[in-house]
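Dear support,

Our group has been running a series of protein-ligand predictions, and this particular one with glutamic acid is the one our PI (initials K.S.) wants archived with full inputs and outputs. We had some confusion internally about which version of the output was final, so please treat the block below as the authoritative record. The input we submitted was:
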Amino acid sequence: MTPPAYIGRLAPTPTGLLHAGHAATFRTVHERARAAGGRLILRIEDIDPLRCKPEFASACLEDLTWLGITWDEGPVRQSERRTVFLDAWTRLRAGGFIYPSPHSRRDVELAAQAPHEEEPVFPVEWRQPATESLPWKTPAGVNWRFRVPDGEAISFHDGRVGAVELVAGRDFGDFVVWRRDDVPAYELAVVADDIAMSITEVVRGEDLLVSTARQLLLYRALGATPPKFYHGPLLRDTAGRRLAKRDAALSLRALREAGLTPEAVLDSFGSAPHVAENPRI
Ligand code: GLU
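Confirmed final output from the archive:
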């Protein structure tokens, strides 16, 4: 049987201006799709109406074009795809995989002993029973969490990092799939869309390796075959800090206005070694 033709996606979140880290990731997405003779879909992940702004989405299209990145389909906007996400929520609920949770991310952070860069593990004692038999018509009004199989090792092969193994309940806990304010959470939206768009390889930054383990559980619960994964390195500034959208001076826009070429932008940052970044993986 011939494998399905390569379909990749560029998936920016328009909460700020793109920086050199995004440039590196999107260049990799583009190169891998072109090298495979595949198709690329541009998907704007503007699902969160509080944080996403249309002006960042248009700036992003401009920056991608400046980087020499082309796409074959889109832009497709997640804000217009609620039915795809609602269908996934309905199926997860019917399968007894998710439950309504009164606890917010903030509660989980407050309950954790020490400050975490990653989201701390959700305490099991806060877990609620699934409610597949109760008449919830819409997800609004409460956080919906996916119940992870405690102690199960979730392993996968990453195209760059190699073998990755994370343990459910230790490295990550029950996670939100739909927010109280009626916004689908990132993990659910990305999986539902990657399935709906028949994505064959997900290329993104290695800060999302733990998310991939969560997402593999969603693929299984939804009865879908996961794509391949390739997690690129994160770029660092000269002080060794991960680049973030808050560093406005390092935005692609500012660097371009300062006269830099895309190549010069990419050459001026170092990438951190993977092992130091994620000692547990
Ligand atoms: N939209 C996400 C981001 O900008 C990437 C999601 C993904 O590639 O799965 O970080």
